[in-house]
Amino acid sequence: MKKRVRIIFLWVIFVLILISLFAIFLNNQDIKIKIYEKNNSFFENETMNSLSGFVRPFAIASGPNGDFYVSDFGDHSVLVYNENYLLIKKINPGIDILNSPHAVDFDSEGNIYVTDFLNKKIQKFSKKGTFLSTVVDSSFLKGPATAYFDGEENLLISDYSSNSLLKFSKEGKFIGWIGAKKNGGITNGWQTDFENRVISENPGGFDRLHAARVFEDGTIYVVDTWNNRIQTFSKEGKFRGWIGEKSNGALTQGWEKSGIAKATDKLGGFDKPISLYFLDGGNFIVFEFGNGRVQEFSSDGKFLGLLASGFNQGYDAMIKNDKLYVVDTGNKKVQIIGITNSA
Fold it and tell me: What is the CA radius of gyration of the chain?
């Protein structure tokens, strides 16, 4: 009897070892770095590292002092790492103040603005992580995904649950909104009447938008997630164009004025784009939740190349100091990929 128990125990240990080895194998297979040619140069993988220990990481931001801020939606916290990726601070004031941190940005004084999805608030913290105030609350917001500053320190809030882009001063004064109206129309600039906002696949409307970034010339780029497209608007909030795959299967070759987009895995198109980040010179990268990849585009909306793929339902990506940072949410990591761009 003792011998039989011992054999069963050894088999259990053997199986557990196999499972562990298989898990390690899968973990090492989840990133597939692509190499692409652009302007007679190559974008290549050099090294890869990661930050781990998260519950459900959603976004990454580079702070004024070069620190990295990672919002952990599942842990109700924002974690701060130094340039050597050492954890130096954890902002976790309790779920009444910070329930589901979704995105992070900073004003010119270094104060921290955190988008809290479930609390339906934009929360302001000091440089040290001390809670200061609620900037915008549920009287305007139904479920904000991100809030990022423009060049004039106005906050552009992608209110995912109301399908609208809202603009506020950094003190929280409402300026206007753009998107589709309940009567079937589309706003033509920042609208101050706060009427019902609805889903729309028409150009200028949104279906659960996830992020909006403003380029230095004032052009607004909106990640229109469930419409599978990127849209641009003027500083005044007027629609300018979109990119993605058209309903007929063709890809846009620059900013389109009409038509609707559909989900695709073709390069140059999108399946649930989730974030956008500007590069030097006006190019930008788009990270897709559906396809788990990072693509690069020119400022005139033309596809330039695939940077990386193989991520698991990620939410954010950025490039800083020749490194690509990807919030690989499904794998509970921030992947850090060293890159070069050499002739």
Answer: 21
Comparing CA positions, the residue from 171, 145, 167 lying closest to residue 158 is 145
For the chain, domain boundaries: 1-30, 34-342
Note whether 122 and 135 are within 8 A (CB): yes
Assess contact for 298 and 252: CB atoms under 8 A: no
How confident is the chain (343 residues) per 10-residue block, as mean pLDDT?
A: 54 48 41 45 58 97 96 98 96 98 98 98 98 98 98 98 97 97 93 90 98 97 98 98 98 97 98 97 96 97 96 97 96 91 46
Assign 64 to helix, strand or coil: coil
Beta carbons within 8 Å of 145's beta carbon, 6+ residues apart: 102, 103, 115, 117, 158, 159, 160, 209, 210, 211
Q: What angle do CA 277, 315, 276 make, to 5 degrees?
A: 15
Class of domain 34-342: mainly beta
Task: Give the H or E element holding residue 240.
Answer: strand 239-243
Give the SS3 label for residue 239: strand
Q: 113 in helix, strand or coil? A: strand
